[in-house]
Amino acid sequence: MIEASSLTKLYGDSRVVDRASLTLDSPGVTAIIGPNGAGKSTLLSMIARLLPIDEGKAFVDGLDVTRTAGDELARRISVLRQENGLMARLTVRDLIGFGRFPHSKGRLTAADHAKVDEALAFLDLVPFADRFLDELSGGQRQRAFVAMVLAQDTRAILLDEPLNNLDIRHAVAMMRLVRKAADDLGKIVVVVLHDINFASCFADRVVAMREGRIVVDGPVDTVVTEETIEAVFGLPVMVREIEGQRTCLFRR
Ligand SMILES: Nc1ncnc2c1ncn2[C@@H]1O[C@H](COP(=O)(O)OP(=O)(O)O)[C@@H](O)[C@H]1O
Ligand SMILES: [Mg+2]
After folding, report:
1. How many angstroms separate the alpha carbon of residue 160 from the centre of ligand 2?
2. Which residue CA neighbors atom 18 of ligand 1 most closely?
3. pLDDT in tens, 171-219
4. Distance between CA atoms of 73 and 63, rounded to whole angstroms?
């Protein structure tokens, strides 16, 4: 369970996240959408304790993230960051193994290795398991980071732009995996997406941010409307229902 209450991040006198409140207490997929600079990454980073919170509180399973030991938190919430430091001389298998550290304290057991193998297979990375990260394409590397997050095997998973660099086949596979994690494994998944049609197709709930604030939060059908998408992005859009799915179309 994730509870963020009035979370605020200040840089100088600009509130890049401004009193954002969000509760996720049941399995499902929640998409966060919003323009560049809206505060999506900053919000997720505060929830995952990657950034200090300036005002407000964040709890994971009732634990205040600012007062909880790192490994305790890491067994409950995992996060794919938008910018991953380049750990070039690391193999894919080693990187994924890092996801097991909060469980194994550095000495991987047979069960940990099995989780690593599972994550390799899920992300279509078996052929690349022993390659170094700097020997991969952007999309392969992106999948390796997601595999590390999955191997951490937490109930709450935050994915900041997981579709970056992915071709359409791997993007769809990634979102199906996210759905499966929610539906079959009971995970609470939050995913930052730029493609509203992916959000509309795969998410249960959509949270839209603009200028640091959460401006709408609700089921796909209530958020993916012409009025809301136009207000969030400041861009005219047509929304049509195709095969029961809200779809955004743009004029050239
Ligand atoms: N370290 C920083 N110092 C100052 N401003 C920052 C810093 N990090 C992010 N920002 C600003 O905070 C805002 C929100 O950034 P971010 O959360 O990355 O947005 P998003 O993920 O929605 O694109 C942006 O305007 C960005 O320029
Ligand atoms: Mg971002």
Report:
1. 7
2. 41
3. 999 999 999 999 999 999 999 999 999 999 999 999 999 999 999 999 9
4. 8
Residues 6/21, Cβ–Cβ less than 8 Å: yes
What separation in Å is there between the alpha carbon of 65 and the centre of ligand 2? 21
Task: Give the span between the Cα atoms of 113 and 5, in whole angstroms.
Answer: 37
Q: Are residues 164 and 63 in the same domain?
A: yes
CA of 108 to the centre of ligand 2 (A): 32
36 lines ligand 1 (CB under 6 A): yes
For 249, the enclosing helix (H) or strand (E) is strand 245-249
The answer to whether the CB of 32 is under 6 A from ligand 1 is no
39 lines ligand 1 (CB under 6 A): yes
Question: pTM for this structure?
Answer: 0.96
The confidence score (pLDDT) of residue 85 equals 73
Number of domain units in the chain: 2
CA dihedral 19, 162, 157, 220 (to 10 degrees): 60
> Minimum-distance ligand to the CA of 160?
2
Same domain, 140 and 226: no
d(CA 111, CA 246): 42
14 Cβ closer than 6 Å to some ligand 1 atom: no
Helix axes 168-183, 138-151, angle to 10 degrees: 10
pLDDT digits (tens, 9 = 90+) for 10-38: 999 999 999 999 999 999 999 999 999 99
pLDDT digits (tens, 9 = 90+) for 95-139: 999 999 999 887 899 999 999 999 999 999 999 999 999 999 999
CATH code (residue 221): 3.40.50.300
